[in-house]
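Data deposition worksheet. Section B asks for the primary sequence of the deposited chain exactly as it was used as input, without tags or linkers unless they were present during the calculation. Section C holds the resulting structure in token form. Section D is free text for depositor observations; keep each observation to a single sentence. Incomplete worksheets are returned to the depositor.
Section A, Depositor: J.P.
Section B:
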Amino acid sequence: MRKSLIALLFVTAIPTAVMAMPGAMRDGGQCPMGGKQGPRMFQELDLTREQQREMHKLMGEQMQQRRAVTQRYLDKLPEAERKAMQDEIQMSRDDIHKQMRALLKPEQQKAFDESLKKMAERRAERAEFLKWKAERDQQN
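Section C:
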């Protein structure tokens, strides 16, 4: 349980540290999470500078909301509370993705939707792997 808390804190802190890096996503600077326009999922969208600024702003808001939600539930880690935290984070993520999508042109929206789909697939594969690994470790 304690390891889960520590891992959760790291996962929450890493995006904040990346966004705080000097030059990240400004003036065409190379973002450590992807290309010149931000995270990998945005590279194919051919964003304008205004779209880049708005996406950056929305991503920052998403990180702040996620951090706030995580902090509220850290002391309440029974299973029911953990599920509530995950649901709230997912709702926040969905809301931000909806706002991001609204900034895009129709052809960009298609690429954005495909990127989200790929991310969900990778997330599901990772969850399946972790489940398998936990079961294997229990048997040993």
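Section D:
Residues 2-139 form one domain.
DSSP finds four helices and two strands in the chain.
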